[in-house]
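Hi V.,

You were right to ask for the full record rather than a summary. Here it is.
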Amino acid sequence: MILEAVLDELSEEGYGGLAIESIARRAGVGKATIYRHWADKIALIADAFKLLQAQRDPDVTTGSPREKLERVLRHVADVVADSPFSACLPALIEGAERDRAVRRFHHHFQAEARKPTIALIAAGIATGDFPPRIDPEVAAFALLGAIFFCRLMTNAPFAQARVPTLIDTVIGPRAALAAGPAG
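Predicted structure:
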């Protein structure tokens, strides 16, 4: 209840307007309850974001590397288009521009969130499903960056139906990989 209140407040009030008093009121608890469990707003936001991430992670235990990557990117496109995380994203970016502690949290959170995508791409390279020319970290930035760019810089979220085309553009089309290099 408290972590949901954090997300609601952050999305409605922005980072600058986020107050422990408002979170407590929204959650129906006293401020002391919040301070007993969290040292500050950053700790509250961190736990709220971790909760969101844990609740919505896609299953990547089955399928080819490309299928797993597609599942992850569809999931990210869905989350970034319409979710509590999406509603909080502008506030978090705004807070990161003004507060070093928020910036450190935001950069760390995003780096950790990218790791599974980087690992999926590296695994695809190792199995030969993706070309060896691919840099997993740069590819993850390109793939995820397109989705976040649409959310933050255009009037329409990245459509999940476009994920296969995005993968083809960054990683290469499946048919070209199967055919191998022209010789």
